[in-house]
Amino acid sequence: MTAYRLTPRLVALAAALAPLFPMAATAALKSPKPTPLAAAPAAAANANANANAAGASGNVTSLSLERVFADPPLQGRLTRQAEISPDGAWVSYLRPSQSDSDQLELWAQPVSGGAPRKLVSAAEVLGGRSQQLTEAERMALERKRISQGGITSYQWCGPSGKTLLFPLSGDLYLVRLTEQGPKAQRLTSDEQVPEQDPSCSPDGSQVAYVKGGELWVQPLQASGRPRVLTKGASDTISWGLAEFIAAEELGRQRGYWWSPDGRQLLVLRVDESEVPIKTRAQIFADRTAMTQQRYPGAGEKNARVSAWTLQVDDARATPLPLPGDAEYVARAGWFGDGTPWLQTLTRDQRKLTLTEYANGVSRTVTEERDAAWVEVHDDLMELDGLQLSGQPALLWSSEASGRRQLLLMDRATGARRPLTNEPEPVAHRVCSDGKTVVYAAARDRGRSRELFAIDLAGKSRELDGAQPRQWRDARGDGDCARLLVTRGAWGEPPTLSLQAVKAGSQPVALPGDAPEALLARIVPTPQVVDITAADGRTPLNALYFAPLDGKAGPHAVITMAYGGPGTSTTNWNWSRDTALIAYWQRRGYGVFTLDTRGMQNRDRAFTRAHHEAFGVVDVGDLFAAVRQLPKQVAGVDPKRIGFFGWSYGGFLAERAMLDADTPLAAAVAVAPPTDWTLYDTAYTERYLGLPQDGKGGQTLAYRQANLVARAAQLEKPLLIVHGTADDNVLFEHTLRLTEALQNVSKPFDLMIYPGKAHGIAGRGAKLHLYRTIDAFFARELRP
Questions:
Q1: Measured between alpha carbons, how far is 287 from 337 in angstroms, rounded to an integer?
Q2: SS3 per residue for 366-392
Q3: What is the CATH number of the domain that holds 568?
Q4: Catalytic residue among 595, 726, 727, 774
């Protein structure tokens, strides 16, 4: 397939539209003092009961969109990337600034007790200089779904627990924990060519990073000089960086890995010379910047990836041959004996191969096959507590049983035996001390997640603190003796606690920001709704939230669903849409949330429903659910049910409206794919296969998912929203459907956000977006 470009006519159309949509500002509110987060859930539950009682009597706490998107956030300043230090003495995390929640700071607190303390902020180390980001760095943050600024990542260096490393504004910085307090040090001084993806050696004596497409190493002592280990980088060739597909679709954000002894690096070389160039028009209010991006659309050429080992002392390189049918490097690393390994996927992603390279010879350890596609995972690890064929047993996971379970595998023979036998899918392994494995698994039809420990004989137990309708996950320390547990529940923002793995260990809450008091008064009460999929037998997870405007009679409903693979939104975890749902309740809407077949946290038959069926199974389930809702919930007006979706949910919104049989009255689609040949290879081909049918046309899977071809079927109100700088779902998706709708004279609403990417970040832009959505639903769903 040839590369596509924005035509001058479409660019001119978008540029003409750009100045028409100003963004609104957001008011700031006073921040609360930090309090123990563990106190928040009980307070929220009590206040929620009071709020429900008040709602029944007509006295409902008021809530505005301005407050929903104001600073500080109603849920409090939630931390991210929480970790236990290598020596087990500290818990570190990134925390939004008290003065601006869009700026992250690096914090830590002693495990033995004591108050949290700020280690460093961007403002402190930049000394008045503004933070700079190259386009490559912006795209990397987008791949990680990080919309905030400041210190956006960090890592502990070495086993001592005294040194942390973080990138900022194109340079690298160290924070050393001393008796006099944290001391920040600038490690590099070249903002124009950033040091990307830094990684400390196992002993913490040096750091590797990518600069100008080459892989470098640099000692951490003040006198150390950087050395380049690779050569040949160009505009299309890079060493040590994850290519777009790996970062966006395979969950691999890194392109190199240290050996256990720190003497070698396993490095990926990426050649994008054959990847088609897509020209993105980054349309701002005052200018249009044409950005060229190597973006492989479905059926097009991917980057060519090769693997090498590099000797750190002399930069000697040795190639690692990939299997002949390998298209993607999904995972990579080293076994404890210094043997490098790769996990590779075929182009159709129906086979994953684990290959090891001992003494320069490649050997297949195991293959994972699936008739639809193989899900990649991070469960591989060695278990020193069990020897198989004279080597540590390998932990692995597979869906061969019909739901994801952990297995024990012989590295020499590939022989497997089951370890877990959970009634619902295992989510992932958390950690292991070599004899016991801690893992997370689904409960309650995927709506809850709990933590478990299992010995190598298969005897498992729930970790202390398990209870219904909650969502727990964890990170372990180096010995898997203590866990940093994250717990969320409906209406309860995530809290952090420390907990030992051994039985009888109760969580010790870590202090942090409490939610705003208002949150507890407005948390919506969910009603579980019994919904059956379009196949007439599969139960779907669905929740309903009744309107709180005090008015009798049939009412309108706003349906919210993602519908796509790889995630679920209807569960007992904290939802970022909590305040939005509460706002719409007060506006007189019922709110209906739904997980269609194909979404995550269920068995293999459920999650594979999307196979060659985008716009078929998901739409069928949505229509079936919308038609069942008035029979399940009193007071729903079946003629006034709307829909709101983002990304794949945006595709679902548009597909539902481009259908003569739609039961929906109106829909909002944000950042929607419209023609799947424009979307990237790994994601699209995993579910739909290659687009070419071998006869010069497209396969049925692509034709039935093409929204542009359905433009003539639009008969009801549709609002389309897109950011012009979206490098995930390119703006051309919306331009193509816009042109098709205009060509058949179908009226619709359009809102574009100049210079905004897939997430339409920024408080002002977010507030404007939801004001626009709110006005649309008020116009189209009110009596």
A1: 55
A2: EEEECCCCCCCCCCCEEEEEEEECCEE
A3: 3.40.50.1820
A4: 726
Active site residue 647: yes
CA distance 643 to 776: 11
Q: What is the dihedral of CA 508, 110, 99, 124, to 10 degrees?
A: -160
pTM: 0.89
In a domain, 46, yes or no: no
Q: What residues contact 155, with CB distance under 8 A and at least 6 apart?
A: 164, 165, 166, 198, 199, 200
- How far is Cα 646 from Cα 668, in angstroms, rounded to an integer? 8
Domain end marker among 206, 228, 250: 228
The last residue of one of the domains, among 172, 196, 228, is: 228
Task: Summarize the confidence of residues 105-127 as an average pLDDT.
Answer: 89
Contact 209, 197 (CB under 8 A): yes
**At 196, is the secondary structure helix, strand, or coil?**
strand
Q: How many CB atoms lie within 10 A of CB 352?
A: 24
Told to judge if 758 belongs to the known catalytic residues of this protein, a careful annotator would answer yes
- Residue 57, pLDDT > 90, answer no
Element (H, E) at 780: helix 763-781
650-687 tens-digit pLDDT: 999 999 999 999 999 999 999 999 999 999 999 999 99
- For 172, the domain range is 77-228
Q: What residues have CB less than 8 Å from 371, skipping those under 6 apart?
A: 350
Assign 249 to helix, strand or coil: helix
Kindly give the interhelix angle for 732-743 and 8-17, rounded to the nearest 10 degrees.
90
pLDDT over threshold 70, residue 449: yes
Catalytic residue among 97, 379, 647, 768, which? 647
